[in-house]
Each structure stands twice: as C-alpha cells, then as structure tokens.
Amino acid sequence: MPHATVRDIAREAAVSVATVSRALNGHSNVRAEVREHIEAVALRLGYVPHAAARHLSSAKSGMIGVVVPDLHGEFFSELLRGMDREASERGLYCMMMVMHGDAQRGVAALHAMRGRVDGLVVMAPQVSADELLVHLPRGMPAVLVNCAPGQSGRTELRIDNVAGASALVEHLIATGRRQLVHIAGPVGNIDADERLRGAQDACARAGISLRVLPGDFKEPSGAAAAATLIEEGAAFDAIFAANDMMAIGAMMVLKRAGVAVPDQVAICGFDDIPLTRLISPSLTSASIDIASFGASAVARLVKAIAGDDDGGVEQRVPIVMVRESTGPRLHASTDHNFSNVHNEKPDKSGIGELP
Amino acid sequence: MPHATVRDIAREAAVSVATVSRALNGHSNVRAEVREHIEAVALRLGYVPHAAARHLSSAKSGMIGVVVPDLHGEFFSELLRGMDREASERGLYCMMMVMHGDAQRGVAALHAMRGRVDGLVVMAPQVSADELLVHLPRGMPAVLVNCAPGQSGRTELRIDNVAGASALVEHLIATGRRQLVHIAGPVGNIDADERLRGAQDACARAGISLRVLPGDFKEPSGAAAAATLIEEGAAFDAIFAANDMMAIGAMMVLKRAGVAVPDQVAICGFDDIPLTRLISPSLTSASIDIASFGASAVARLVKAIAGDDDGGVEQRVPIVMVRESTGPRLHASTDHNFSNVHNEKPDKSGIGELP
DNA sequence: GTTCTTGATGTAACCGGTTACATGATCCAG
DNA sequence: CTGGATCATGTAACCGGTTACATCAAGAAC
After folding, report:
1. What is the pLDDT of residue A341?
2. What CATH superfamily is the domain A63-160+290-315?
3. Which of residues 259-288 of B touch A (CB under 8 A)?
C-alpha cells in the first residue's frame, strides 16, 4: 500500500482536498469540528506530507543549503553545528553540500540546490566568488561567507583576517619574540592570503622580518614545516600558523624534537577550534566563535529570503585567546596589553567557555 | 524574469517538452542534431532543473538523508565525511538532520525526510529504535547504525562494542594494571551500555573488580570523573573511558594534578577519533575507522534503495590502537599479544594512517 | 506496391500538494 | 422578506518536471 495523500484523506473524511490542505496547515477558515475530523483521519492513515510536492506548489521548502569547500577537521563541524542550531530554532532544516575544492563540482553543487532549498550559505575561500556566483540559480537568495571580496553587492559575512593575524603577531612580539615564522595556508585561499598579509603588516610595523613557509591548512603540512625548520637548524623563537591544525602539527614535531614550547618557541594558530584547549600546552589562537559565526550567517540568510536584508558586509574581528603555547613567562606576567587580547585563565578542568 | 523551464526550452527550440526532457536526460531516442540544438538552447536560457519537480514526477531525488543524534565533536564530522565521500562517488547528495536527543524531534526529522530523500541512514543510540522506526515514512529504505537491536529485520550496521571494550580492558590488564576505573557513557545509550558490559565481562574473566563512574560522552564529564577520583584519593592505575572525548578530559585533569600518564595511570578511550594522535601522550583507543563505517552505511543504503539488500546485520569489530597513554613500559616491550591488538609506531610526524 | 518494423517525436496524464476563484449557506440590516 | 456581507467548502488549475501511449515517417521485407 502506497503512502496516503491528501486525496486519500479527502475521500476518507468526505471533504475536498482543499479543505484537507487548509485544515492540516492551520488555516483559520475551517470549522473546528471538521478540522479535528480531518486530523484524526490523517493520523489514522499515517499521513506524512510529501516535501517535494509541497515545495513545487508553494515555492517554499523550509530548507537552507550550505556549500562548504571541505569537511576536514573541527572548523566545519563547528560551523555546521552553529548553522543547524540557528536553522532549527526557526523551524528550518539544513542541507550541506561539499565542493571538494573543485570549481566544476562547485557549480554542480550550486545547480543541484535549485528546487531543494530556499536559500544558500556559500563558503568558497578558494575559487573566485564572482566566477562561482554566475552559476547561482536565478533568484536564489545567498549569503557569502569568507569569499573573496566581490562587487556582487551580495550579503557577505567575513572574518577580519588581517586584524586577527596582526593581533597575534603583535602578541608574539610583545612577549619578546623576534624571529618569527609564518606557516601559510594554501595559495589562492582568501583567508590564507589575508592572514599572511596581516602577519607581514605587523612585522613591518615592528621592523622585524618574517619567514614564510608553505602549508595547506592541514595538520601534516604544519608538521612538515616544523620539520624543515629543525632540519635546517634555523633560528626562530615563534611560529604563527595560518590555522590551528597546522599549528598543532608543528607543535607535535617540535616537542618530539625536544624543543620546549613555549620556553624556546612560542606557537599560535587561527580559528580557535575546541581542540586548542585540549592539547598541551594549550594553543593560543584567534577566536571567531565559529558556531556563532555560522548561526549569524543563517540569520542573515533568513532575512534575505524574507526580502528584508540590507545586503551589506558584516565583518568579525577575531579575539586573541592567549593560552599556554605563547603564555606569559613566569617572570613577566603582563607584557602585553593590546586592545582585543583576552587572557584566558585555565580553570580546574581547563574547559573554560569563551566570552 | 523567472527561471527557465522545460516548456520554455521546448518553445524556443520548437520541439515538445517530452523531447526536451529526453534530450537533457541522455535518452538514446533523440536525433543527435536535435539534442545538440536543445542543449544549446538550454544553456542559452540558463536552464537548471528543478529538483522538487523532478523528484515528484520520477519518484527519485538523488539524495540520501542522515539522521544523527548530535553534532558535537569529531565523531560525527568523521562519519559525515565518510558518508559524503561515498555518496558523492555515486552521484548522490547527503542531507543531514540532527535530532537533539529528543524523541519528539526525531519523529519530526523522520517525517521531514519524506519527499526529500530516497533513503535514510538512521543513527539513534539513545531512543528505542523500534519506537522511532514506527514513524519512518512508509516504504522508505533505511539503514540503522548503532541502534538498539530490534526485531525490525532491517538492515543494520553495528559496532561490536562488547568485543572492543573487552579487548581494551584486556590490554590494560596485560600491561599490568589491576585497579581499573570505567567512565561510562550516558545511561540508556546502547553504545555506552555495551561498552560498560564489555569492560565488566573482561574484568570478571580476569577476576578483578571495576569501579564505574558516570559520564555523558562529553569531555567535561570525563574531567569531572577524574577530579572525583583525585579528590577522593582513590587508588587506581588505569582508566577506560567509554569514548575518546571523556578520556581526554580525564587525562587533562590527571596531568594538571601531577599524575603521570601512563607511568602512574594508563588511560584509554573508544572511537579512535583523529584527535587521539594529536594529544600528548597520544591516546590508546578502539578504532572502528569512523569514516569508512559511514561509507559502508551509505553503500548498504544504496543497495537497499535498489532493492537488493539482504537486510542482514553487519557487525564491525574494533581494533585496539595502542598508543602512548597505555604504551608498553620501557622494560617490558611485548607484554600483550591479543588477536586484534595493533601496535602503532609513532612516525616522525606522528600522523600515521591507520590500516 | 503493400505491409511490417523501427525510431523519432508529440500529446497529455500524472506525481502530490497549494490556492484562486466559484459556490452556496448563514446571518444581519433595512 | 430580500439584498448583501461573511464564511466554510468545493472545483479545478497550477507548480515543473517525466513518461505511457499515440502518431507518423522512413526503411525493410515480401
């Protein structure tokens, strides 16, 4: 026996399909007695509405789509979590689609969203946003997250990577480091590029040089960079990795090589994934509260779908979370006082909530 | 201007909608010359098919749904990653829905899937599977992952938690531990219950006692359990936490309290999330290769959708990954030789691929 | 040359909802 | 008692695809 439809209910309840639809959707113009009867019949028949049919006729799906470049590590799981939370609070559902770095696949993913979602959150730090957005289904509301700044005039959410990276580097310098190394993210990635620039800017202002090693945002590349430094016997006293995973990879290699962190070398990352607090020494990072960032994107999208979004660009300035990996040395407790630097005190369990 | 439809293309190309549909779907019975013309027109009009309409008429959506209980931590992101990989290899898309532990919401999520997906992967270790499955849309193929064993006769994937937990405890005993503590998972959770039972069984066989502390699979509860032990001044030399996150929480507290791991206390977890290798000391765990587990679930689901699935239960036996947190002591290198125990050698970067 | 087969194409129904509009009943004012 | 407003309900079109079936032309077989 196939699934029950509104017509089945109509027949069974001896009313028309229109009345069934109105009753089940809570329209006011249905007699209470009729509504109850219809609801009872629907329950008895095990009726569950067919989302595609409803979507087709009402042009609403109650679903928002999320396009992400990757699915590795905690960054995306946190982002997803924040988005899902916000969406479900508004009675919406999330579907996620991965465009594995590939522009071809990105276009396919965008196309596949047509007829499935009411709007899109697109995160595409790799490919050119403008190039991708040409393929956005016509009239599909979208919020861009961490995309290359385009002239699309679309709603955008962005992390102030330059400010965050500068603040981290200034923190390193303030704690006495002078021989800085930056492990960069993948070339062409907007976040990576901006973080590099922020680091360079801060170094230039302080009049010190910065060595840059390549990386790809994944942990092994951070490890490889550190291994290179050690093999070379390079002189360095601080590493700023363009994200947390690379910082962790680097830290592991240093520790195995007997380099003391932070006594000999300070290390910091970027993103402030939950993991930063779980490793030892805990990792200094630039915090953007990923989950809340994702929630924000969804909130903006909901406004855009409703038609009342200003279409502006929202920029988040990260906060530096100072932890053990660059922690103040014992004999100099307050050697830094930058505006957006937050000194996190380890509590007993070491799991402090971020402000 | 609204989106182009097949009828627009038909008009523009001076053919019928049936021909347009056939041409764009690669049916053989279309003249090559006509097909090319139609494709050209479709491209010119920026045609993108409407998924809901296609789904409605063809009863296929090309989408599989994933229902998970939660979205915290690396376990689910790994699972998602594996599923997504497998699905996209088969030209399918994944949508994920979170039922926040709540049975009410679980039912809503299941209903919301009707008319959206061709099949479901349901992971519901908390609620009674049978109770939930009553609300599965009629005729919807589904694969159950880590659900309480039901008599549903459905396709199920399951982790052999008892065997995994037993193997871990046997490993602890073999390395000389005698005062064991188990940090349990949430009560009513099938995985947690089975892991507890596996630990108890192994202890009973060895004739030693097992202290059990409550937990909830989240990291703070592991920390709290360890704190309790320390405050009490309890005598113990090994902790087996029901999952990795709690093990990590416990380890952090022990280290802060000056307890040496593994010299004084050995610690192991369960799940083998990527993080186990990144902390120090690296964490011994029972590995089920989460991503591949997820991929397997999708593969089974695809078979079920095609109609040729045996409907059997597939059980995965975890492998014990021995790492530093329970590592062999220096003076007794091979004090264990259980069948499914795998001794992981740390390589230079510390990021060995699992077999 | 006629009939049969084959293959390309068109017509229209259908999937399962929603909703504009029509209908008819009820109620109230005049 | 009657005309108009109000409200519940029914009829049927529509959303945008797919596809069974009908049609028709061209080539093959006799």
Report:
1. 57
2. Response regulator (3.40.50.2300)
3. 275, 278-280
